[in-house]
C-alpha cells in the first residue's frame, strides 16, 4: 500500500480551537493540532509562548476557556482523568518540591521518596506512595533506573539527588508502565553533556519500540529534535504558527520569528543545529557600556 492510500493512524492527540485565558491574559489563542498514534512531535517556542500550558491542557491539568481536546481516544471533560493518566508518561521540571506545593503546582512526584518508590508511583499515577507496589513492580522500577544510569542510587531520596539524576529518575517513572503516550517537557534541562546524549539515546530507543508510543517532546533546543520526527510545531505568543516535517519547519525565517532573533539553521549527522546570527542584546550591552 502506498503512503497516499494508507489510512492515517488514529490520532493519539487531537485538539481544536483551544483558547485559554488566565488572570486576564490570553495564553492559548485558538490552537488546533493532531498527533497520529506512534508519531513523534517536537514542540518548540520561546519562553512564555505557551508550550507547557498546552501540554497541561492535554493532561487535564488546565482547562481551556474554549475548544475540544481528545487524548488517546478520550474526550477531556467526559472521561475519568485518573484512568487516562495511567496511559500517559510525563516528564516535566517540577520534581524538587515538598508535598504542600505538589498539589498547587501539578508536580508529578514527591521528591522525599527513594528512587525505586518514586518510579513505582508511575504504576498508580500518583504523586506519592499511596499504594504498595508489588515486588515485580519494584524490580521493573530498579531495572529502568539502571538503564538510565541510576543503578547506584536506588535507595536515595530524590531530594538528595542532583538535578540531572532527578531528571533521569523522572524519565524512568514516565516509562515504567510502557505508556501509549509520553509527554516530555524540557527533559534534558539540568543534564550534563553525556547525560543529555544518554537521554536522547533513550528517546531513540523509545521510538524504536514496538508498539511505538506517541511522543510529544517540548524543547528549546533544536539539536534535541530527532531528525526523523514526524512533525515539528512552532509556537509563538499562544498560537501554533507552523506544523510540518522538520525539514520544512526548521528554517531560518520561521525560527528567527519564533525566537525573536536572527538565527541560522544547519543539518548535520541527522540532527538540526542552530546558531544566533546577530546578537539581539548587542544594543543593550552598548547602552550599559560593556
Ligand atoms: N496561571 C497563570 N496565570 C497567568 N499567566 C500564566 C499562568 N500560567 C502561565 N501563564 C503565562 O502564560 C504564558 C505561557 O506560559 P507557559 O509556561 O505555557 O510557556 P512556555 O512556552 O512553556 O515557557 P517556557 O519555555 O519559559 O517554559 C506565560 O507568559 C506565563 O506567564
Automatic annotation (TrEMBL):
Annotated Gene Ontology cellular component terms: ATP-binding cassette (ABC) transporter complex
EC code(s) of this entry: 3.6.3.-
Pfam families attached to this UniProt entry: ABC_tran
First-level EC class: hydrolase
Entry-linked InterPro entries: AAA+_ATPase, ABC_transporter-like_ATP-bd, ABC_transpr_CbiO/EcfA_su, ECF_ABC_transporter_ATP-bd, P-loop_NTPase
PROSITE patterns, per database record: ABC_TRANSPORTER_2
The keyword Transport is assigned to this record: yes
Positions of the ABC transporter domain: 13-262
Keywords from the named record: ATP-binding, Hydrolase, Nucleotide-binding, Transport
Keyword presence, NADP: no
Single GO MF descriptor: ATP hydrolysis activity
PANTHER family, per the entry: ABC TRANSPORTER ATP-BINDING PROTEIN MODF (PTHR43553:SF3), HEAVY METAL TRANSPORTER (PTHR43553)
Designated name of the protein: Putative ABC transporter ATP-binding protein YlmA
Organism: Alienimonas californiensis
Amino acid at each position: 500500500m502506498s503512503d497516499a492510500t494508507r489510512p492515517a493512524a488514529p490520532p493519539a492527540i487531537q485538539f481544536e480551537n483551544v483558547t485559554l485565558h488566565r488572570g486576564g491574559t490570553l495564553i492559548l489563542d485558538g490552537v488546533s493540532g493532531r498527533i497520529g498514534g506512534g508519531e513523534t512531535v517536537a514542540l518548540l517556542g520561546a519562553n512564555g509562548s505557551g508550550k507547557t500550558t498546552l501540554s497541561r491542557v492535554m493532561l487535564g491539568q488546565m482547562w481551556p476557556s474554549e475548544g475540544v481536546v481528545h487524548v488517546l481516544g478520550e474526550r477531556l471533560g467526559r472521561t475519568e482523568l485518573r484512568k487516562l493518566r495511567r496511559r500517559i508518561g510525563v516528564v516535566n521540571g517540577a520534581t524538587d518540591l515538598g508535598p504542600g506545593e505538589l498539589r498547587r503546582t501539578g508536580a508529578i512526584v514527591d521528591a522525599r521518596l527513594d528512587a525505586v518508590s518514586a518510579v513505582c508511583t508511575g504504576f498508580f499515577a500518583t504523586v506519592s506512595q499511596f499504594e504498595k507496589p508489588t515486588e515485580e513492580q519494584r524490580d521493573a522500577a530498579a531495572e529502568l533506573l539502571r538503564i538510565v544510569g541510576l543503578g547506584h542510587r536506588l535507595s536515595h531520596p530524590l531530594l538528595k539527588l542532583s538535578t540531572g539524576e532527578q531528571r533521569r529518575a523522572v524519565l524512568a517513572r514516565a516509562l515504567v508502565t510502557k505508556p501509549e503516550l509520553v509527554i516530555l517537557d524540557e527533559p534534558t534541562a539540568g543534564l550534563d553533556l553525556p547525560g543529555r546524549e544518554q537521554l536522547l539515546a533513550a528517546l531513540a530507543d523509545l521510538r524504536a519500540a514496538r508498539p511505538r508510543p506517541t511522543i510529544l517532546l517540548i524543547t528549546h533546543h533544536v539539536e534535541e529534535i530527532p531528525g526523523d520526527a514526524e512533525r515539528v510545531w512552532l509556537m509563538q505568543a499562544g498560537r501554533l504558527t507552523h506544523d510540518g516535517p522538520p525539514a520544512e519547519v526548521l528554517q531560518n525565517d520561521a525560527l528567527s520569528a519564533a525566537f525573536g532573533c536572527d538565527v541560522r539553521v544547519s543539518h548535520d549527522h541527522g540532527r538540526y543545529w542552530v546558531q544566533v546570527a546577530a546578537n539581539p542584546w548587542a544594543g543593550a550591552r552598548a547602552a550599559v557600556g560593556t
